[in-house]
Structure formats: structure tokens, C-alpha cells
Sequence to fold (359 residues):
Amino acid sequence: MTVYNFSAGPAVLPKEVLEQAREELLDWHGSGMSVMEMSHRGKQFMEIAARAEADLRELMKIPDNYKVLFLQGGASSQFAMVPANLLRGKTRADYICTGAWGKKAIAEGKRYCEVNIAASSQADGFNSIPEPSGWQLDADAAYLHYTPNETIGGVEFHWIPDAGAVPLVADMSSTILSRPVDVSRFGVIYAGAQKNIGPAGLSVVIVRDDLIGQPLDGQPVMFDYAVHADNGSMYNTPPTYGWYLAGLVFQWLKDLGGLEAISLVNHRKARLLYDSIDNSAFYANPVDANSRSWMNVPFTLADPGLDGTFLEEAGAAGLVSLKGHRSVGGMRASIYNAMPETGVQALVDFMADFERRRG
Ligand SMILES: *Cc1c(COP(=O)(O)O)cnc(C)c1O
Fold:
């Protein structure tokens, strides 16, 4: 039976990538070794690492004045590394809060500086993006932080905020590589890999080079972007196997036609699922229609008493990891790049059938 994994993260990886990794698992390109066993400073791994970075730069059209870092510590470490590096003598930072991950970034930011919550959609249960006309931005903020896609609430910006001269910082963990993005609009883009890049344990940071090199006093050396940039992300042992797998995912995306091509697929998948929810009186998604995520689709059943049955029957049909986040309840279907259209079609078919039988 085909299993479609709708997990929010760690999440589904492209089957082709896993098959290639299996092929190369014991003997990478005639080296007689697994990538896992290679020295990160050896010629072979250096080649893998450089190729992955070059492919990511090509996919995202990353300008030359940006560093690309392959780090550990997850997106959660970036909640701290961003202020530790970007404050640069300033004492305040702006945050836009559209959900649970934004809240976590803010809580961590408060350990480093005065946080101004320039806008929040808390009042409507984090089901929308606040209108930019009402944002209380601070011209002297060290940076403006936001979460382009809230993985738990399923709320996504379909546009890039205008931060003026203030560096814009984006936690793109669950939306990076889902569509083209103008990197030059950002000071920092960061993402944990386990949603749309590769396995857990790797995080990717894209940072404009004029913003690094002035970390807060007393920071651990591992928290200094410049240290990682100056050492090609090999100041210490990087997550080599995750980096390699990320590289295979980048090649897979290039073979598919890049981010324009995958964005069309992602748009189709999201529309299929939202249409089936909207056209039913049994399923509901609470998010404002203009701010619905292409990647994470929460939905509820008209009768929450049927949640357990829904999950059980979906699982038996090969549709797994659909349980909503514990803070939200209901269901959540994460439909990242690696989720094929056939998987979303199978889910939609199952939902219609379940509604007929049980609704
Ligand atoms: C998953 C996620 C995180 C946390 O990532 P870790 O790698 O577990 O630290 C942060 N932000 C967003 C938007 C996420 O989806």
C-alpha cells in the first residue's frame, strides 16, 4: 500500500531522493564509503557541500552579497542567533506575530532586546495577517522579524512586508523553496531543514554579508554568523549527511524545473484541498481566504467526536500523520514540496468518502 505522510515535520522527502540516497548509501560515487563516514574536510565531502550550496543559490537566485550557512540547532536557535548578530548596537527590534512560532521567536528575542510587537493577529485567533496599514513599525529597530508561514495555524503571507531600510528577517522553515522569492528583500532568511529541505538536524541561514561580524559581546562562538561564514560552515563538524541529502533535494527541484515549476504544483495541491474543504459543510478551515497556507492545511470536522475515527480510517487507507497540532486539535495536512499531487487527491477522495459515510 502507498503511504502518504502528511506530517508537519520531520516530513515527507521526495521518493527519488531517498532512492538515490539508498543507491549511494554504502559507496558514494566509487569512494568505497558512505557520505556519513567521510571527513567534512576531505575533497569528496567538500565537493558535495559546494554543489549543494551552488544549487541552492541557483534555485533561489541568491545574490552574491549573501552568505549561505549550513548549521545545526534548528530554527529555534535562530530565534536567538538573529538578535545576537543583528542588534549591532541597537536595543530594539520589531516583530510581527501571526502564530505560535512568531510567539516563540518573540519570547527568545526578549532575552536580548526590547521587543516591539508591531502587529499581531492574536485578537482573531491568529487566523489572518494583520493589515500593514496598522503596523506600528519603529524606524530605529535593528530588524523586523516575521514568520512567512505559520506551520501550526496554517497562515501564510503571500507577499513580502516592506521594512524600509530596516533589515527584514524571515523564519521560512515551512515555506522555503515552495515558490520563488526575491532574496534581495531580506536581511536574513532561515529555515530548519525538516519541512521542505531535508532531514532534521540541519538548518539553512541566508544572510546579507554587511549584517554579520558585529555579534553581541559574550555570545558563544557558535552563535556568531561571521565565524560560520568565514569557515564555510565548517568551524566545527557540520551535519554532513543532512547537508548531502539537502543537496539531493536541491537537485531534485532543479530537475523538476525549479521554484517556478514547483510553485505551480503547490498552488494546485493547495487549491484542490481548500476547495474540497470549502465545498463541504462537514469540513472547515478557519483561516482568512487571502492568508491560507500552501504548505500546512488545518481543518476540523463538524463533529469533533469523529476525529478519532477519521484518523483511524485515514491511517488504514495509507493517509498518515493527519492529527492536528496538540494546541489546535482537529486535523492538519502538511503538503510540502515532496507530497505528490496523487497524495492530495487521495486525501480529498478519502475525505469525501468519509463525509458520505459518517457526516
Ligand atoms: C518547525 C518550525 C520551527 C522550529 O524548528 P526547529 O528546527 O525544531 O527548531 C520554527 N519555525 C517554524 C515556522 C517552524 O515550522
Notes: Residues 9, 74-76, 101, 147, 151, 171, 173-174, 192, 195 surround pyridoxal-5'-phosphate (CB under 6 Å). The mean pLDDT is 97.
